[in-house]
Amino acid sequence: MQNDYKTNIIDNALIGFANGINICRKAVEGTIGKGSNVVIQHEDYPYYILTKDAYSIIQSIKLNDPIEYQAVLMLKDATDSQNKRSKDGRTAMTLIADAILQETIKSGENPAQVNKEIGELLPVIEDLILKQKKPIYENEIFKVAQTASDSVRIGKLLGDIYQQIGKDGIIHIEGSGTWNDSVQYIEGIRFNDAGFISPFMVYDEVAKKEGKKENKAVYENPIILVTKRKIEKESDISKLVDIAIRENKALVIFADDMDSNLASSIVATHKAKVAKILIIKAPILWKNFIYEDFAKVTGATVVEESSGINFKNLEFKHLGTCAKIVVDKEETVIIGGQDISEHINELKTKGDDDSQLRLSWLTTKTAILKLGANNEGELSFTRLKCEDAVHSSRLALLDGVVTGAGRCLFEIARNLPDTIGGRILKSALSEPSLQIMKNSTIPVDWSDLLDSADVVRNSVRNAIALASIPLTSKIFISIPPKSQEQLMHETLQAQNRRF
After folding, report:
1. What mean pLDDT comes out for the span 183-191?
2. What are phi and psi of 246, to 5 degrees?
3. Between the CA of residue 368 and those of 184, 202, 218, 331, 394, what are the distances in Å?
4. Strands annotated E in 196-276
5. Domain 148-396 has CATH 3.50.7.10
6. CATH number of 8-134+400-478
7. Which of 205, 348, 368, 412 gives a 20 to 30 Å CA spacing to 473?
8. What is the pTM of this model?
9. Is residue 248 within 8 Å of residue 179, measured between CB atoms?
C-alpha cells in the first residue's frame, strides 16, 4: 500500500494563525460582561450546553483549515494555562491576543519586532497592575464573585459563604435537585502537594456530563489504603482491587513508593475502565506527619513496619473511607471524613511549629453549595459561572483586587509609550472594556466592579505568550492525520515483523 499523504508547507503563517484566533474571538466576544449565551451541541450527549464560559466554548471549536485549526489548538493550550491558574479571565485573554495579531497585521510592521517590544512592555504592565491592586476582605468579596459570574445571585451566595469559611476554605459545588439553592457547612481537609501520579487517572462524571475536560478525580465512598511500605508487585494490592470491583467502589492508594512498572500497569487498568483506581503521591515535605493525619481523617491504619501490618496480613478493617474525595495534580480534598476532634486537641496541646502547620490543613472549613435549577442545561450553565466566581474570589482574597470589567487594563493602556509595541498594546488592552460596554444594555458602573488582580495579570501574560507564537512563526507545516485504513495497514506490518 502506498501512502498518499503529503506534507503541506504554508508560507506567511501569521495570517492563517490570526484568522483561527479571530474565529474563536467572534465565538466568545458576545459573552463577556452582561453579554449573551452560547449554545453548544455535544455529539456524545443528547442535550445541549448553555454557557458563557470561554473555556468550554473554545474547547468545542473544530475547524477544517489546518493552519486555522492549529491556532485554535494553541488557544486551547493558552486557556488551559489560564484555567489551571485562575479559572477566570479566558475571554479577556482571547480578546487581547486577537487584537495584538490583528493590529500587527494592520500596521504592516515586522511581527518579530512587534513581539520583542510587546515582551519588553509586559513587566511594565504587570507593575502597573500591582500599583492599582488593593486588599479585599470576606465582607466585600461578593463584588468579585458578582463580576466574575455576572450574577447577583451567585455574588450573594459566595459572599455569605466566604464570611463563614474564610479565605482558606473549600467550596464544593453540586446540584440541589430542586429549584432552590442551599449551603451545607462541614469540616473538609485539604492536603497540598498530594496529587495523583498521572493525568490519566482523572475521573469526573459531572465534568464529562457537561462536556468539560476532566482534570480531577472525584469519588464518593471510596476504599482507601494508606501505606508507607513500597508496593512492589501486583499481588500486593490484587485483593483490594477485587474488593473495589465487587463493591463498585474506587480504590484510592496513598503511598510514598511504588514500582514504576506496576504504577504504569495500574494507570492502564484504570484508563481501560477495568477498575476505578487512584494513586496519590505523598508529598516530600512533612511526610511522616501527613501519613498519620491522612490516616486519622480517613479512618485507615497505616501499613508500615511499626504497625506490624503488611500486604499479606492486610484486612478490610485496616482500610479507610470518606464521603467524597477530590484529587487533582496538586492537592487532595477529603470531605466527610472521620471525627478528628481528639486528634486536633492533641495537636493544640503540643503547640509546636509542626503541630501548628498540621492544624492549618486539618481545620479547613468546607461549604457544599447546592445550586438550584429547572433542568440539566440550566444547572450546567450556573455551575460554570459559579466555578469561575469561586476561583476569582479565592485569588482576590489571597492576592488583592483591581477595578473590574476590563477597566484596570483600559487605564493602564493610556500610560503605555507611543512606540509600535506600545500602540498595539494600547488597542489590545482596551478590548475587554470596550467589548463589555458594547455588550451592556445599560451604562457600566465601574466603581461597583472588582476583579482579582491575579486573574487580570494572568490574562495579559497568557495573551502575550499566545500571540508571540504566530508573531515569531513564518512557516507552518501541516501533516494530515492518517486514515483508519493506513493505521490498520501499519499495525499489521508491525505484527508481521514481530513473528
Report:
1. 82
2. -65, -40
3. 5, 21, 14, 18, 16
4. 217-220, 223-227, 251-255
5. yes
6. 1.10.560.10
7. 412
8. 0.69
9. no
